[in-house]
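Please decode residue identities from the backbone states below.
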């Protein structure tokens, strides 16, 4: 997948960014070309080798049709939760977030919300809930042509106790 300067892209675990440039650099004796990706959430700049972007999971933003599918995932409540220890759950959820798939991130967010109804989340799980929510928030807003406040309101509706 080729990105151009100005394109929006999603980098797994960090969220939506804008391609600010394409640079070629000499690294360890070989020339490599990189996407310079600036993450919108925190202003962090990431250099992604163009040859490795697909393998890393860098991808285009979701489409409006996919936005509706993500909301469907978030609205599901009939999910079987593993009764494993919090640290195993944490590792499993973190692996899902790192895939970069908006569907996997939505499942993590939904599962943690459902779990929160059964028992208190650990500190790490609460942070992961916030991380998953933040990753989805910006992408759903941009992909669905809405403001972040509108998506926040939808989240509040979906995740009301």
């Amino acid at each position: 997948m080729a990105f151009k300067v100005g394109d929006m892209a999603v980098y797994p675990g960090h969220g939506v960014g804008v391609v600010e440039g394409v640079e070629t650099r000499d690294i360890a004796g070989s020339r490599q070309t990189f996407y310079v990706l600036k993450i919108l959430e925190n202003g962090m700049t990431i250099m992604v080798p163009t040859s490795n972007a697909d393998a890393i999971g860098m991808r285009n933003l979701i489409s409006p049709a996919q936005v509706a599918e993500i909301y469907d995932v978030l609205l599901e409540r009939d999910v079987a939760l593993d009764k494993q220890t919090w640290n195993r759950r944490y590792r499993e959820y973190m692996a899902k977030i790192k895939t970069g798939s908006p569907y996997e991130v939505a499942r993590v967010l939904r599962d943690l919300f459902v779990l929160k109804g059964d028992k208190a989340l650990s500190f790490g799980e609460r942070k992961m809930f916030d991380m998953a929510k933040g990753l989805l928030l910006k992408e759903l807003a941009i992909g669905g042509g809405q403001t972040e406040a509108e998506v926040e309101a939808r989240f509040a509706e979906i995740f009301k106790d």
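Observation: The helical segments are 53-56, 64-75, 86-98, 102-118, 123-143, 148-158.
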